């Protein structure tokens, strides 16, 4: 029998698959031919953490986009050292993929639904920036997303792009030497960039 975490992960994957497979039923007119082949954008909200994350989405069909996501950063956080709170720095690396089906409009602009898989790895570092002996922590997120892409053409080949996505995902977090923890949580992507 499957444990509770695996059962929830399989349920999240099944929901994502159902959303994607049902999308063609609700599809509207594709809004004409897509003039852009790619969108490169970043999430300005993550800069507050500070993490820089970039997304490169590519049109594979007029109504379908596939994206590669990557980023990283060094952040400072407060941890309990056993003798009170202490400040710790960690290096964070994120990578993932996303697939979107445009329910209205097309790759250039419109309402879309899809799924996202993200991996994150965090390693504590000392004041010199050297990784500490503590084990790195990792997390994997699988979730369903929906959103809207808006485009402002500035020439025939380039357009400024804004993207808002929201969804729900299942996160499995672990650290070597400890058991894994899993939970469901909301997903939010706010991105700005360019399409060309």
Overview of this protein structure:
By secondary structure, the chain is mainly beta. The protein has one domain (4-70, 96-115, 137-171, 180-195). The chain has one helix at 4-26; strands at residues 38-42, 52-61, 64-80, 85-102, 110-125, 137-153, 159-175, 181-195. It has an 8-stranded antiparallel barrel with strand order 1-2-3-4-5-6-7-8. Mean pLDDT is 84; it is low at 23-30.
Strands, helices and their partners?
Elements: H1 4-26, E1 38-42, E2 52-61, E3 64-80, E4 85-102, E5 110-125, E6 137-153, E7 159-175, E8 181-195
Model regions low in confidence, pLDDT < 50 over at least 5 residues: 23-30
Q: What's the domain count? A: 1
Please state how the strands of the largest beta sheet are arranged side by side. 1-2-3-4-5-6-7-8
Strand content: over 45%
Main beta sheet strand tally, sense and closure: 8 strands, antiparallel, barrel
Coarse shape: elongated
Number of beta strands: 8
Structural class: mainly beta
Question: What would you report as the Rg, rounded to the nearest angstrom?
Answer: 19 Å
Query: What series of H and E elements makes up the topology?
Result: HEEEEEEEE
